[in-house]
Amino acid sequence: MIVAIDGPSGAGKSTVAKAAAKRLGFSCLDTGAMYRAIAWKALADGVSFDDADALGAIARDNEIEFGHVEGDPVPRRVFISGTEVTDSIRTSEIDRAVGPVAAVPAVREALVAQQQRIGRAGDYVVEGRDIGTVVFPEAPVKVFLTASAEERATRRVKQNEERRVGSTNYEEVLADIKKRDEIDSSRAASPLKPAEDAVHLDSTGKTIEEIISFICSRAEQAQG
Predict the structure, then answer these.
(1) Rounded Cα gap, residues 27 and 127, in angstroms
(2) Is 117 buried (19+), middle (13-18) or exposed (0-12) by CB count in 10 A?
(3) pTM of the shown model
(4) Which one of 21, 110, 198, 205 has the lowest number of neighbouring Cβ atoms within 10 Å?
(5) Chain centroid to CA 64: how far?
(6) Is residue 215 within 8 Å of residue 19, measured between CB atoms?
């Protein structure tokens, strides 16, 4: 069974997906980390973000894997072709790079295939931007999670401060979020938009616990 959580950057998808997966006893697939890994590989290899063919080849030729701790459904480590990039993909440089990379149709096509291979092997909570519309359109539970750009920037700054990775400058983070929103919503391949049958959930002013409980309740109803 798939629980699909879509929404813009900084809406809290990753935090909510991990907590919901734990509560439901599902695994968690962080699709955003997969696109970040491709962006990291492109930077490491000196590939231009304007070279769609080369970016597509990176996504096709490099398998992305997640490392798990026994008994924990949430992946703790990220690898691309055997190289660990867990911390390397959470920098402000990757924050800015991932939008253009994710907009490349060949990259999306290759990673959608990887995501489907992983997700259809079990019960997963999957978060991203096109999960309910493209990757798992058959998912019985679809949520479109959003929040104001200002709220998302505040959360991202706090998150970056806590993990000591990425920018902690509010204005810089806010600008990056707005730019990412524009790129994600206007790209030709799988633009950010809610599935027709998705439940819209604005997390502005809501606690994480409220959001998690709502999603888990929907999943339990679908299972029943």
Answers:
(1) 12
(2) exposed
(3) 0.81
(4) 205
(5) 14
(6) no
